[in-house]
Specification:
The structure holds two protein chains of two kinds. Chain A contains six helices and three strands. Chain A is mainly alpha-helical. By secondary structure, chain B is α+β, with helices and mostly antiparallel strands. Chain B is flat. Classes of the chains: A mainly alpha, B alpha+beta.
Chain lengths: ~130, ~70
């Protein structure tokens, strides 16, 4: 499938998701249509990463949780990033636990890459839900 | 604003580049990983917060449930 045909690829991804299909090498190849083929090694690395996430508290700005996050995911400040060159590639998922009043993060998940940019997203969540 | 310890984040950090086949660039592999995670978490994902490259939230992602990245 032509990788530029976003609509068709999107529909195909939705179809698989609605059928609750588990991801496979074939499905990922069809949906993403990369130039190079995704192989078993790539897939196994995805499985390994999925099974072994690093779980941290949400790095809320102006709290000590920021430093804990930065130790793992690097700094967010662009100038510091350019100087250090330490971009941290990866994906992340944000979620809430429990049903405490005021915490409306339940069922709101995020997947993005470029971990260094994550704090911007955290701020957006806080602004949206608090 | 007090979220206590209710907010969590799972990080899926790529290992050394040597572990990734030369067939795929880092960006491409991240697309694969992201898509894999989308399939795994499925309905729990909020479309409003799936960001578009390079990590900037789309805000309103339109009518699409799972927007695919352009790469």
């Amino acid at each position: 499938m032509d990788k530029n045909n976003i609509y068709k690829r999107h529909v195909m991804a939705l179809k698989h998701i609605k059928l609750l299909k588990e991801p496979t090498v074939k499905i990922l190849n069809n949906v993403l249509s990369l130039k190079a083929r995704i192989n078993k090694k790539h897939f196994e690395l995805c499985v390994s990463l999925y099974k072994n996430p690093i779980t941290l508290d949400l790095p809320i700005p102006h709290t000590e949780k920021i430093s804990n996050f930065s130790k793992v995911a690097g700094v967010e400040n662009l100038d510091s990033l350019r100087k250090s060159g330490k971009f941290v590639p990866g994906c992340y998922r944000i979620y809430g636990i429990g049903n405490s009043p005021g915490v409306i993060l339940d069922k709101h998940y995020i997947l993005v890459f470029e971990l260094n940019n994550m704090l911007k997203v955290v701020i957006k969540i806080l602004l949206t839900f608090v | 604003m007090n979220l206590g310890n209710k907010g969590k984040v799972d990080l899926f950090i790529l290992p050394d580049l040597e572990n990734i086949s030369k067939d795929l660039s880092i960006l491409e592999f991240l697309c694969v990983l992201e898509q894999y995670l989308i399939f795994k978490y499925r309905s729990k994902i909020n479309k409003l917060f799936i960001a578009s490259f390079p990590g900037v939230p789309e805000g309103h992602a339109g009518k699409s449930l799972i927007p695919l990245r352009r790469f």
